Amino acid sequence: MKKLIQLVFLLTCAFASKAQVTYLDVHEKVSTYPKVEWVRGTPVTQFDKNKIYIIELWATWCKPCIKSMPHMNQLYTKYKDRIEFIGQDVWEDDIEKVKQFLVDNKDIISYPIAYAGKREESDFEKNWIKPSGTVGIPRTFIVQNNTIMWITNPFSLYEEHLQLLLENKFTEEAAEAIVKKHKL
User: Fold this and answer.
1) What is the C-alpha to C-alpha distance for residues 8 and 119, in angstroms, rounded to an integer?
2) What is the CATH number for 34?
3) For residue 184, what pLDDT is reported?
């Protein structure tokens, strides 16, 4: 009986501590988009459970981010009628710099853009970047059915992933298998 009580206590503590931890990872439910300033496109404030969202974190000074933009733009061009794409600018203090970057690079980035604002003050930083453990960009979040389905690098996102999402057949295992296939 004593062992049963200890087991119940340990399980209760485990569940209670999990509920108190604030983190953002695969399989986490999300309903609201952090407060950001929308530079281009229709603002998203709430996630629609019937939509798929691709959220790409980037900055104007980030060379890998800029390198991934043509790829993301191709995916956006092909799937924009079925999937919501958001280019989420992060870790910058100057929205005018971001706006000018978009003008100067309109051929490689045409999808909707949101500006998070100053790093330490940003709602996006507080509610997505820190809780997800994101320490570098570019970074891509996939949301479907108000659930984070996958967190990846935009270079590892392929049309096959988007097709699986559209067919409601997306799994982490299937996503990783696609990445592995493309790396061979």
Assistant:
1) 42
2) 3.40.30.10
3) 77
